[in-house]
Amino acid sequence: MSAASSSSEPSIPTGGTTSASSTPATTSAATGDATASASGSASSQAGTETLTVPAGSRPPQLTWSRTADPDVIAATFVAATWQMDTTTDTSPSAAQQRAAQLSTETLAATLAQAPVSSGGAAWSDLAFRSGWTSVEASSTSTPDAPDSDTESYRLVNATITAHGSDGWTSADLFPPVVVYVSLVPDGASWRVEDATTYSS
Fold it and tell me: Which domain holds residue 126?
């Protein structure tokens, strides 16, 4: 996974979007019949995949359709990347490695070998509060790179909300991000091949 930072967000196309959100209560994303959702239950349903998380993790499980379109996969991947719990994760890198469940084997290997991130001041603050994050991610297609049988590209906007064990919340601890995601087919679904993150 590559990462880049920018003082201003890249232009985001308008049009249809697919969103995935992770809140303490419920999460859902949909485009037509393709859905990705998360609830407090870790149980699997027929035709769905559920992100594996540590036991006791407070953010809800992220679940997506096995035949999901690229918008759902891209939004769910980004949501998973930023959905963290300081009581079960040792660093933000744990979330990135969970998100690899939606990626190609090559990207998963890259994420597994990446240096462990300290998380900086934001992670330290969240850990001090024994906190976790919820995520809202919205995916849009890119008009300059239309889908083909072999590849798909998406821009995903994500906002991250921090939650403390004492009820504290903040939408400012982690800045919003824009992620450029490339995907490749995987049977009836898609997998993330690469992702580049831009922070505002």
Answer: 2-199
To the nearest 5 percent, what fractions of the chain are helix, strand and coil? 20, 35, 45
Residues 6+ apart with CB under 8 A from 124: none
With 0-12 / 13-18 / 19 or more C-beta atoms within 10 angstroms meaning exposed / middle / buried, residue 11 is exposed
Ramachandran angles phi, psi of 186, nearest 5°: -140, 85
**Counted domains in the chain:** 1
Beta pairing, strands 2-3 & 189-199: parallel
Contact between 20 and 74 under an 8 Å Cβ cutoff? The reply is: no
Q: What's the pTM?
A: 0.78
Contacts for 14 with CB less than 8 Å, ≥ 6 apart: 140
- The answer to whether 68 and 32 are in contact (CB under 8 A) is no
* Dist CA 168 CA 129 (whole Å): 9
pLDDT at 14 over 60: no
